[in-house]
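Incident log, structure service

09:12 report received: a user says their structure output differs between two submissions of the same chain.
09:20 pulled the input from the user's history:
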Amino acid sequence: MAPGARDGGAHDELGPMPAVVLFDVNGTLTDLRPIGAPWNRPELGPAALDLAVRTAMVDALLQTGARPFSDHLRAAVEVVVAEAGLDLDGIDAAMAAAATLPAWPDAAPALARLAAVGWRVVALTNSGGRAGAATLRECGLLEHVELVLGVDAVASFKPHPSVYAYALAELGCSAQDTTLVATHPWDLAGAAHGGISTAWVTHGARRWPSVFPSPDVEGDSLLAVAEAVVARAGHRPARE
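09:34 re-ran on a clean worker, output below:
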């Protein structure tokens, strides 16, 4: 194991019991690779999302308003495709794919596992609430979440603190009773800053950025992370 790499297991001590488990959507519950399908370059999907998040962060820092995340994603796809020396004619097809991304194979079982324990399962997405719900409906996951919260409600983007504060207020829960599951370290860093517990699904990533607080649990798949969250809480029932 490389220095700084993590073993994916849950911490030994019991953590706070999460009355609510928040899930990021884009890249965490859904597979981004089809975005690159028009060019037979699956790696362009994750690359485009990474760039879209960076430009959205600029909007958040500058407080420029409620530009939809889809605008950032389209601009990012254009950039990564151009940088790869590929034809831009596939942009519309890529955006159509982005609207109908498939779920990771173990996404539904992971959501069901947490709901079975008695916890509220909620999506928190950089897409708008309606767009996020549409994405989850298309991939068959909407029935597994209680609610879809979008950043359009606060005209900002994760990891701005206002997004996580909005989620807590909307759900009527405290940070100590909440866990965020995400594949993006920047998202988990934002949640940790607000006192929310963090669960990292690596989806193949090998190393956690050492500048961010370490995640409370991690695993290489959604189901592994769900089991780790349950184990960390000591299989305690959710608070009423």
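09:41 both user submissions now match this output. Likely a transient worker issue. Closing.
09:42 reviewer note: Residues 20-30+102-232 form a domain with the Rossmann fold fold (CATH 3.40.50.1000). The CA atoms of residues 69 and 127 lie 6 Å apart.
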